[in-house]
Write a structure and sequence with these properties.
Structural class: alpha+beta
Number of strands: 4
Strand order of the largest sheet: 1-2
Largest sheet: 2 strands, antiparallel
Radius of gyration: 13 Å
Oligomer: single chain
Strand content: 5-15%
């Protein structure tokens, strides 16, 4: 709670044991996710806005 200004959680069941793509995880967070408690929330966290992940051509995720 002290280390970040944005956090969210979602639970779902899927058929495959493979982790979902970043795009699918983002879709699920927007669809059924909820914000987690953080001590210093950003404006996006306060408004429950979850930006799409930035993924480059090598399928690597880059955090802000």
């Amino acid at each position: 709670m002290e280390w970040c200004d944005e956090a969210a959680i979602a639970h779902w069941t899927q058929d495959s044991a493979e982790p979902p793509s970043w795009e699918e995880a983002h879709r699920r967070l927007q669809e059924s996710g909820r914000p987690s408690k953080v001590n210093h929330p950003s404006e996006g966290q306060r408004n429950n806005r979850i930006p799409a992940p930035r993924i480059q051509s090598m399928r690597e995720l880059h955090f802000k």
